[in-house]
Structure formats: C-alpha cells, structure tokens
Predict the structure.
Amino acid sequence: MPTKPLSFLLPFVAAAALTLHAAPPSKSDKAKPATPAAVDPYTEVQPATETLDLSAYQHIRDEGLNHSHVMDFASALMDGIGPRLTGSPNLKKANEWTRDTLTKIGLENAHLEDWGEFGLGWQQLNTWARMVTPDTAVLIVQATPWSPSTPGPVTGEVTFVNIQSEKDFDTYKGKLAGKVILFGAMREVPPVEKALFERYTDKELEELAEFPVTAGGGGLPPEMQARLAARMERLRLIDKIAQFFADEKVAAVIEPSRDSGKGGGSGGTFFDDNGATLGRTPYIAEKAVKIPVAVAAIESYGRLYRLTQAHVPTTVEINVETKVTGEHEHGFDTVAEIPGTDPVLKDQVVMVGGHLDSWIAGTGATDNGAGTVVAMEVVRILKALNIKPRRTIRIALWTGEEQGIFGSKGYVTQHFGSAATSTAPDQMQLPEFMRRATGPLTVKPEQKLISGYFNIDNGTGKIRGIYTQGNYGIAPIFTQWMAPLKDLGVTAVTNRNTGGTDHLSFDAVGIPGFQFIQDDMDYESRTHHSNADTVERLQPADLKQIATVEAIFVYNAAQRDQMLPRKPLPQPELEQDKRKPLEGIFPGAVPPPPAAK
C-alpha cells in the first residue's frame, strides 16, 4: 500500500459552468467541438485550462454528503454477507449481490465476467482452541485460509518447532506425531505508545507531493532484490515444512500472528493473510496444505510458547472445522454501466472500481469493502441526479486481488492488452503477478477507448489527494479539479507511484490508472487483513467524502472534450536494455577479452 504525498499550488479555476445533463444543455454546450471516438489518446492536445461544471459539483456534493447510502451498502455487504475469500461461497454471494444491486439502482448491463480458474473454494465453519494443561484458558485463534479440518476436537501435547533450513528436519523426524505444533518465532510485543489512528498533517501532504529523485532510479535496488530473494527462499522452504508436518502426522499447527504498524498487532488483534498460510499457493488443489493450521493472537501464542520454553508439559484441545466447496473454482468480476449519450464520445469509457474480495478474519470492511461500497455509491449518486454522461461510466468490482490482482489483470488482458512475462529461472520462482514483463506489449482496440480508471483501496480514510502514477501531464488537470474541493480536505497531487492494488493492471497496458491519497486512520496499524476489519472500523463521514470526491472525478473525466492524457505506451521489452551502462564512452578504453568457452 502507498506511502505518503505534498500538494501542487491549487489555483482556483472557476470557469463557465456546464449544466448537469439532467437539465437542458446550454448554448456553450451545443457549441463545443466533438472529439472523435477513434482519436489517438497518445497524441490528443490537452487544454491548459479545465472547464469546470460548478453546478455539477454542487449537485454531487449535496447528494453525496446529505443523502448518502454508502453505509446501507456497507452493512448489507459486510454484515449481510461477511468475509469474501476468493473462490468462496461468500464471494459468489457478493458477486451476485453487487450485480443485482447495481441493476436496482439503475445501471445497465450488470453482469459477471469470468477471469479464469482460481482454485479451491473454501469456507471456515468453526474454529476454537483451549489450553487444557497446566491451566485452562480460551485461546484466540482462527483457521488460516484453505486449512483442512481436524477430525473433530483433538487434544495434543504442545511442541515448539524451529526449522530454519532443511538440515533442521532431522531434529524433529519421528517426534511430532499427534502433537500440536507451535510454528513461528515469538516476537516482541511493544507497548502501543503512539496513536493507532491518525490523519495526514498538512506538512506530510506537502512532503508527499515532492517527487523524490533517486540516484538509482529504475528497477529494484540491490537491497530490495536481496530481501525478495531471501523471502522467496523462505517460501520454498515453507512448502517443504508443510509436507514434513503432514508426513509426521502432526495433529495441528498454530502460528503466531504478525505485528502491524505501531504495535497494532496486539490486544487480541490477529492477521490471517498470506503471511499466515502454510504454503505459497494453498488455494491450488495439488498444492493444498494437508494439515490443520490456525493463526493465534500473539497473547495466546505467547503463553503457550513461554510454557514450552520452560519445559512445562502443556496440552491444547483444538477444533478446526472448514469446508472445501470445489477444487477448480473460477473468479468473477462484477461489471455494470451508465451508458454514454454523446453521439461521438459514448463509446469511450471512464472506469471506477475497487476489489470485492477479502480475507476471512473480519468481514473485509476497510479492505476492501470500503472501496467497493464507495464505487457503488459513486454510480448511485450519478444515477440519482439523472446525469447523462457524454462518455460511458463503467464500474468494475474485482476479485482475486489479495492473491495477486488476478481479477483486474484478467479483465485488462481480455479487453485491453497484455505483455509476456519473464521465464528466467529466478523470475519463475516468483508468483506470476510479480514477474518482470518482457513484452512486447500487445494492445487491443478497446485500449484506446478507456479514458481512465479510478480506484479506492486504502481503507476508510477520506481522500486528501491523488497519485498521478508518474503521469506528469495530468497533474495540472487534477489540480484544477481539486480546487473547489479544498474545503473537503482534498489538496495534494503527487507524481509518485503507489502500488499494491488494481490500478496497476491498467497502468501496465498504458491506460491512466489512479489511486487516491487517503488518511491512514487505523488501516495499517489495526484493520488491514485482521479480525478487527469490521463495520465498526468504517468512518461514515469519511466514506461520504470519498464517494463525493470520486464521483466528481469520474464526472469530470466523462464530460471533458478530451480523454485524459497518457504516459508513453509501455515498452517492457526495452526496459532492461535502457538500464544497461553506456558502452564506449571512456577515451582510450580497451574492450575486454572475450570470455573463455
């Protein structure tokens, strides 16, 4: 998820207002030159001054701030359906609910699009654990995603296992049958000395808007490459450890929850994401974990760990009850539209969205129920105002984001284009979404018809600005759009990139894709992938503000004469060559001898 953004100076540009399209068009509207739908967006000339429809701003603000239904959507999704793990029955319910709800609020062509096979359908039915000896105590645990069940409640002696390399297997071979394994080092639990909940200060926004120029720009720095290599090596070992535990016939495995920012991973909060799963791809049937695995709040894990280290005989009773609902489940995105009305521009599209899937510990409220219900509220606002956009407005709610932005990548590949990824040995060890694109990029005709994509996936905090993703030509445009929103706290435009979510799928094929700068709140410290990620962590006033601001951005993009400016079309096949040192620039340099064969 993103780091923090500063702002460009915000000149207040109040230009002649266009009217809402619910009202009769003005003479100035009729006189506007049409932009051909087939225009090349890479060569389109952009105006220096934006024409802002301040009447539309007024109506959108009134509807979004004073007649919001965003929390209605939120409770229906998070409370009524619950967590939405990719491939699960709950996610199927959420796909169908979003499709049907978008139809009810007036969108057209609401449907589900298959992005391909995902893997195991899975749901947790019940998980509990308790210490039996030397004392009785209720433990705070939950099954890790895609864990198999225990055969009912099982009781086993608790044993701590520390495997750092394959040679450590011999230490435990033949000694673990029927045991409840503690797997994972006991970490420090620092006191919570700083607020877990915070907003950006003006100074932080100013610093964020300053674009950092680094000496080693381009590609991963060596230290990051080393960390990534070590991480992948550990993940390869984890796969072997999971098989070793299965071969040893352990009763169950309990892992400690990771920490989060500012020590927020304490007080009974735990996280159930990729770091807790005992395997790299446990959702693929042939790589499924064969033993029950649970993740524990650090306080529950800590007591068991300390008892084992003091050589106190300790037993735990644990019951993991889960269900596999299918081995080759497909993933689906929810898609719907407000059709464009301009005879020339209606085939062009402005997209808005967020990811619908979540993890299971909570109900996926801030990650990313917030982005889902905000996108739904954006299109509800525009439909409630009976706005007839010039371009088509399309909402897309992605799935499979948590496992590798699968849904948005699949959609983009099917509709807009793709590039081949590296097959080098080191790259093949990485998940597909992390492999280096080698190109060339192949684009489809629809690619030139997408003006831009707007995404929310940073929790419940209100919008403070936007990342341009290195699209320098759009910064002055966004600055002008934001000027009338300064009183809502929207001030920062930064040319920095931000990653970790679905706008990257669009950016990779040359389509302008944007993520907004949002107040941190307690997202990174407490709610991101945790059991605390529930409706109680949503901030209604912030969600109203987000939906209002995003609706204005979508409206502006749909109405302006030009499509949004683009960066140059990516050329991934040239990236490595462009980063090579220049040859032959040292006077008198002698070419090195050819390498020995």
In short: The longest strand covers residues 108-133.
